[in-house]
Specification:
about 350 residues; alpha+beta; two-stranded antiparallel sheet; single chain; Heat Shock Protein 90; about 65% helix; 3 domains; 11 helices; five-stranded mixed sheet
Length: about 350
Amino acid sequence: MNTVVRHIITSVLFSILFALLIIGVTFLFFPPSNWNAIWNSEFGNVSYIVWLFGIVISVGTIIGLSLGWYWKQRLHAVERKLDQMVKGQKVSEDEESYKELVSIQLRIDQLQEKFRNQAEHAQRLATERAHEREKSLQEIVVQERNRLARELHDSVSQQLFAASMMMSAINETNPPKDATLKHQLTMVEKMIHQSQLEMRALLLHLRPVALKGKSLQEGVEELLLELTQKVPMEIATKVEAFTVDKGVEDQLFRILQESISNTLRHAKATTLNILLIERDETIILRVEDNGIGFDMKKAKTSSYGMQNMRERAYEVGGTFKIVSLPNEGTRLEVKVPVLRKEEALDD
C-alpha cells in the first residue's frame, strides 16, 4: 500500500476513535436530558452527526496526508542514496538534513566507506599480483609467444593475404560465366577474408603480452596503430592522459584486447569507436562497433570471453556493462573508481 494512503487511513481511524472517546466521556459526565434532540439537531439542513463525522474524517485525512507526504519524502531520500550506492556513485549530502534519518545516513556512510575499502583492497591486490607476474615472468615464455606470432604472421598470415589477392583478382578480372561457380568463388573469397580477421585476432592475443615498461595509454595507442595498419576498418579513438595503479592498467588493457578480438572475429563491423578517459574520479573504457550484434540472452550463458572481461572488471572494483542488439552493433563499457587521491591525502 502507498505510504500516503496508509497514513491517511490510519489517521482517519484514529480521529474517529478519538472523537468517539471524547463524545463518550462528555456524555458520561454531562448526560443530555433529551437524546433525541442530539440525533435530530441539524445545521444547514445537515444532521449534527453527519457534521461531526465529516469534520473528524476531514481532519484525519489532512493529518494523514501531511504525515504521509512527510515520510514519503524522507523515504525517497533514503532510496535515492541507496540507488547511488548501487550504481557506484558518490552518495550526495542533502542540504536539509532530517533528524529522523541521521542514524540511517550514518549507516549509509559506513557502508559506502566499507565498499570503498573493499575496492581499494581489491585494487591493491591486483596491483601486487601484476607486479609479481612481471617479476616472475619467464623470458622463455615471452620469446616463445613472440616467435609463434612472427611465424604465424610471416607464413600463414602472408599466405592468407596472397590467397585473398588471387581470389579478388579472379573474381574481378576473369569471373566465370557459370553463376554457381561464381557464387562459390565469392564465398571462398569471403571465407579467406574472415580467416584473415581470425588470424589478426589470434595475433592480437599473442602480442603484446602485457604492458611491460609502458603506460596504459602507450599500450592502447600502439595496439590501435597496429590495428589500423592491418584491418580495413574505420577506427575513432579518444584516449586521455591520466595515471592509475599498475594492476588497473593491466586489467583494462586486457579487457580492451579481448573486446577488439571479439569485434574482429564476430562483429563484421566497419567502424570501431574507443574511448578511454577519467571523469569524476572514475576511469571509463568504452568500445563500440556497428557490427551485426548478438542476442544478449544467449551470450550471457555461452560467452567465455564476456565472462572473462566481466571478472577482470570486478577484480579491480569496477563495473562491466555490455549492450548489443542483432544488426545494431555492440557497446561495451567498463567503469573503475580511482582511489589514489584519497590515499595521497592520508599520506
